[in-house]
Specification:
This protein is α/β, with parallel strands linked by helices. It has a five-stranded parallel β-sheet, with helices on both faces. β10, α15 and β11 form a beta-alpha-beta unit. α4 crosses α8, α6 runs antiparallel to α8 and α9 packs parallel to α16. It is globular.
């Protein structure tokens, strides 16, 4: 691969490129923005928030200089309120439902302002209930798993979280663009959640669902989607063609961004948030030309219009109606991606020395787990209960939008259902 190194950019340039993409509001700006709120009764922004945060309530607290109270109001409903303030597509959720226009209220920035001012060094603000003696296993330490673990620990249950990686956080730690959650934010948030007590995380252990069901009173599966979809195209094994999620994880864990290889001309295949994230990060690592190629139109892209515009502002070119058909190489290295148009039979050739596949992930079923699946993911009832009576699931391994906030809500709902199940089965 005729690669360039991120080291072509100075350490200062790299630091600037991967600094917090959205600067927080200062006190004066937060007060001014909070006072724009109409404080609606039965506010549509609350209904648009998957976790049901009392948005007018916490904004009123900011407007009256009770920032700590605003933070507690947020975290009561969403213990991942800090990261959701940074990564949620607020433009299509709470802000999209805001009755204030031109512009709508900056709810995400106000939520961040509140949660950033919580003193995480103080005792945990939400104490645990008395210990119950019941034990629950949670598979996966991402937003769904930790949300469920937290909710169960609050009820006094003992929780053991089994996590394959060496750090908790899941997508927040390994999959979100580095400029959205910089400065080790995901780990600081996880530490705050675990400070409630009653939660043990075991890293790097291979466990079987059948054994967990024997050893624990209930199980929650927050496994995410571990499989990366391939394209099954000629040339896919060429040097320089790789999975976007793997590269993003490597970037997120890199101590030295200048050590990462990066092509001069990059093609990204896909139309979701991962495609946007890898494309923008490629530009910020020093790629000279970055093109997102998507097989359908802009309305069908998984990434929001806001994310698409953000990519274009960062110098990323987005081309639609391009279906990849093969990759061409020279001396085992990719030199071009070839597409057919969805509107014509003509081939389009885009020269490149790096290709990122961002065409989605798939749930990898556990061996002989006995779970019913629906559309390739774990089938669940409304409260997250699976086809097994003592097993619940949530997050990306079940059907629904692959959003952090949705995973958090799945974990919260499942924790309540598991607690009710444990109370009903006290003698068993």
């Amino acid at each position: 691969m005729a690669d360039i190194q991120a080291g072509r950019l100075s350490a200062t340039e790299l630091a600037e490129n991967f600094a917090d993409v959205c600067q927080p509001l200062d006190r004066a700006a937060a007060m001014a923005e909070a006072n724009r709120c109409y404080f609606c009764y039965d506010a549509p922004c609350i209904n648009a928030c998957p976790t049901g945060i009392d948005i007018p309530g916490f904004i009123r607290a900011i407007a009256t200089s009770n920032v700590a109270g605003a933070a507690l109001s947020i975290l009561r409903e969403n213990i991942f309120g800090g990261s959701c303030a940074r990564v949620c597509p607020t433009e299509v959720l709470c802000q999209g439902a805001c009755v204030r226009h031109d512009p709508p209220l900056a709810i995400g920035l106000l939520q961040r302002h509140a949660t950033d001012h919580l003193n995480t060094d103080a005792p945990h603000p939400f104490p645990r209930a008395p210990v119950t003696g019941r034990k629950v296993a949670v598979m996966g330490a991402g937003p769904a798993g930790l949300s469920c673990a937290y909710g169960l620990a609050r009820q006094g249950h003992q929780v053991v979280v089994f996590e394959a990686r060496d750090k908790p956080g899941g997508l927040n730690e390994f999959g979100i663009a580095a400029y959205k959650l910089p400065d080790d934010f995901a780990q600081r948030e996880a530490a705050f959640i675990l400070a409630v007590g009653g939660i043990e995380i075991r890293h790097g252990q291979q466990v079987m669902l059948g054994q967990l069901r024997q050893d624990f009173d209930a199980v929650f599966l927050g496994l995410g989607q571990g499989g990366v979809r391939g394209l099954d195209l000629p040339g896919e094994d060429l040097v320089g063609v790789q999975n976007a999620v793997d590269y993003i994880a490597e970037l997120r864990q890199a101590d030295d961004l200048s050590s990462l290889p990066m092509g001069a001309r990059v093609v990204v295949i896909g139309g979701g948030n991962t495609a946007i994230d890898i494309a923008v990060q490629s530009k910020r690592l020093g790629a000279e030309d970055v093109t997102i190629a998507y097989r359908r139109g802009p309305e069908q892209m998984g990434a929001t219009r806001h994310e698409q515009a953000f990519a274009q502002i960062n110098g990323v070119r987005i081309k639609h109606w391009l279906q990849p058909v093969r990759f061409e190489g020279k001396a085992d290295k990719v030199v071009a991606a070839v597409f057919t148009s969805g509107q014509t039979d003509n081939e389009t050739v885009i020269p490149c020395d790096m290709v990122f596949k961002a065409v989605g992930q798939a749930y990898l079923p556990m061996a002989d787990d006995g779970l019913e699946l629906a559309d390739g993911r774990i089938a669940v009832e409304k409260n997250g209960r699976t086809s097994l009576p003592d097993v619940w699931a949530g997050g990306d391994c079940v059907a629904g939008e692959d959003l952090t906030v949705r995973a958090v809500q799945d974990g919260k709902v499942a924790a309540r259902a598991i607690d009710a199940f444990l109370q009903e089965n006290r003698g068993s």
